[in-house]
Amino acid sequence: MKKIGLTFILISILISCNSSDSKKSTADLKKEIIKTEKEFEAYCSKNGIANGFYTFADSNAVIKLKNDSLLIGKLGIKNHFDKTISKSAKVTWDADFVDVSDDGTMAYTYGKYIWTVTDSIGNKKEFKGIFHTVWKKQKDGSWKYVWD
């Protein structure tokens, strides 16, 4: 009888450890990604584009530029944005779509962005486009982009 009772207890523990209650729902994970997108945008606004793209990048992040060249790694990304017109630019964006992998470790978003650049005499020019970002869950539970 003890053996049956112990088996029942062990099975109950295993089931509770694997229940969906111990994992975040897809809807909750999507909310995390949207929140991270907004934090990323706000950080860029407050601290500059170079610092924002550096801070929210995974160590192996890659950004594809318009001319099909790649920025590879956090430092490469920061150095690029520190040296270009992006130093004086502002960027805003909104994710139109978000999805998360079944295991909750990867996600992607896409939507519209606007880069606003002010020249030396105060004229503003806007560049509009579509972004696509791939996010990876970090060991500490935060999200960092691996592709943008």
What does this protein look like?
The protein has 148 residues and is an alpha+beta fold. It has a single domain (25-147), classed as Nuclear Transport Factor 2, Chain: A. Helices cover 37% and strands 36% of the residues. It has helices spanning 2-17, 26-47, 49-55, 74-83, and strands spanning 57-64, 70-72, 90-100, 106-118, 124-137, 143-147. Strands 2-1-6-5-4-3 form a six-stranded mixed sheet. The longest helix has 22 residues, at 26-47. Residues 5-21 have low confidence and may be disordered.
The total beta strand count reads: 6
What assembly state would you assign to the polypeptide chains in this entry?
Answer: single chain
Low-pLDDT runs: 5-21
The percentage of residues in β strands lies in: 35-45%
CATH architecture: Roll
Number of domains: 1
From the 3D structure, determine the CATH topology. Answer: Nuclear Transport Factor 2, Chain: A
CATH class: Alpha Beta
Strand line-up of the largest beta sheet: 2-1-6-5-4-3
Structural class: alpha+beta
> Mean pLDDT, rounded to whole units?
87
Helix share bin: 25-40%
Number of helices: 4
Order of helices and strands: HHHEEHEEEE
Largest sheet, strands/sense/barrel: 6 strands, mixed
Based on Cα principal axes, name the global outline.
globular
